[in-house]
Design brief:
The chain is an alpha/beta fold. It has 13 helices and 13 strands. It has two domains: 265 residues, Aldolase class I (TIM Barrel, Alpha-Beta Barrel); 56 residues, Alpha-Beta Complex (Type Iii Antifreeze Protein Isoform Hplc 12), CATH 3.90.1210.10. Strand 7, helix 7 and strand 8 form a beta-alpha-beta unit. The longest helix is centred in the N-terminal third of the chain and has 14 residues.
Length: 336
């Protein structure tokens, strides 16, 4: 499998992604500097994140809505930064967090798509990306054993095999105990025929090097310009250009980072589920006895309502009462 011109392998020469994310704070000048850091550090690709905040996060989830709103970018911003990446001879990648962003990246003809851990169980979202038939990189932070199995079943049902599974621990920053790098072996046992990789949320490079030892074909690590910033948590798990370069230099001098294999995620990571996952919401006002259709629903953070993975249990049900636009659905709203 190739991402751009790079052919993935299992020869301890992973594809290195510098995760710029939203560390540009919506500023094109900062975005260019992030590209420069990625290039200087020896990364094969630099990856950003794109979304329309109103599609991504409920406004009532005020803290996170405001945090992401100030970092929102548009298609023109992405077009310019992709052009700058081409000038610097580094691959441009991007994670879409909303459906509009998928269309943007389709227009930009990205060589691959990345889906973040927060879209756990959001199979309708995955289905839209799969239809584009590009390599798909899937992060699995917060995925318990059953979630990994469900993901495998879904991808098999779609007859789609052009994917790479990244192990990830969604804690900022994650300790060695929380990471439990041996969970990579669980992923390898489930997705036996596929490439795998590691997306790091620690504040050092030990787990990265250990994952390469275990055969990771992709490594993803955050980069940043601004540190100790209250508007962000990504800086806690980010490298500057010097640390990222050192990581690349050490990538073949790896050491083991092992713990007993477990099928369970840590209690700390379970605590991240509410803010990072998505619930089912009503798009427009609906009325008593109306039958819900897939087109009537949308999926937004936080994940404290009916989980997006339960959409099949909702579609086709009739309503007990009138529901307002943007209502967070409850099973008690539905007739049996």
């Amino acid at each position: 499998m190739k991402i751009g011109k790079f052919k993935l392998n299992k020869n301890f020469k992973p594809y290195i992604i510098a995760e710029a994310g939203v560390a540009h704070y919506g500023n094109y000048g900062l975005a260019k500097k992030l590209v420069d850091i990625a290039k200087y550090s020896g990364a094969h690709a630099v990856k950003f994140q794109a979304y329309k905040t109103d599609e991504f996060i409920n406004k009532k989830f005020k803290k996170w809505y405001e945090r992401y709103k100030i970092k929102e970018i548009n298609l023109n911003f992405l077009r310019k930064i992709k052009s700058y990446c081409k000038k610097k001879n580094i691959e441009f990648l991007c994670t879409p967090h909303s459906e509009t962003a998928i269309e943007w990246l389709k227009y930009l003809k990205v060589p691959a798509f990345k889906v973040g851990s927060g879209d756990l169980g959001n199979f309708e979202f995955l289905r839209k990306i799969i239809k584009l038939n590009k390599p798909l990189i899937i992060s699995t932070g917060m995925h318990e054993y059953k979630d990994l199995i469900n993901l495998k079943k879904f991808l098999k049902k779609q007859n789609f095999n052009k994917f790479i599974i990244l192990y990830c621990c969604t804690v900022y920053p994650a300790t060695s105990r929380q990471i439990n790098l041996n969970r990579i072996n669980l992923i390898k046992s489930i997705f036996k025929k596929n490439y795998f990789g590691y997306s790091d949320h620690s504040n050092n490079n030990l787990a990265i090097l250990g994952s390469v030892f275990l055969g990771a074909s992709i490594i993803e690590k955050h980069i940043a310009i601004k540190f100790n910033d209250k508007r962000s948590q990504d800086w806690k798990v980010s490298f500057n250009k010097h640390d990222f370069l050192k990581m690349n230099e050490k990538i073949k001098n790896i050491s083991q980072l092992m713990r007993k294999s477990e099928k369970y995620i840590s209690q700390e990571e379970i605590g991240q589920k509410i803010w990072a996952q998505k619930s089912i919401y009503i798009k427009e006002k609906k009325y008593l006895n109306e039958k819900l259709k897939l087109k009537d629903l949308k999926f937004m953070r936080p994940g404290d309502g009916v989980h997006c993975s339960l959409v099949k249990e909702v579609v086709g049900k009739r309503l007990k009462l009138n529901l307002k636009k943007n209502h967070k659905l409850k099973f008690s709203d539905l007739k049996k």
